[in-house]
Amino acid sequence: MTKFNKFIRSGEFESDPYRNEAIGWSLFIGDLKEGPVKQGIEIYDKNDLRNPENIEVKREIFKFFGLDADAGYEENLRLFEKEPEI
What we know:
Elements: H1 5-8, H2 55-64, H3 73-81
């Protein structure tokens, strides 16, 4: 796992920039009249693995766990539902 230390610490005492500690949800819609969401533009935090700018980081992490970063949830779930070959 030390291979991924570059993703865990961005500075000496800074926390993991890619972690998400959310345990609930809330609706924050702001002003949708003129906002980018109303226009269909997706907005991500700079450290969100869903952010297209982080695709290489996402691919590396997913590959480590045997997942395909370019596949959806259902496709990745099927990877673990297959019968093991004997």
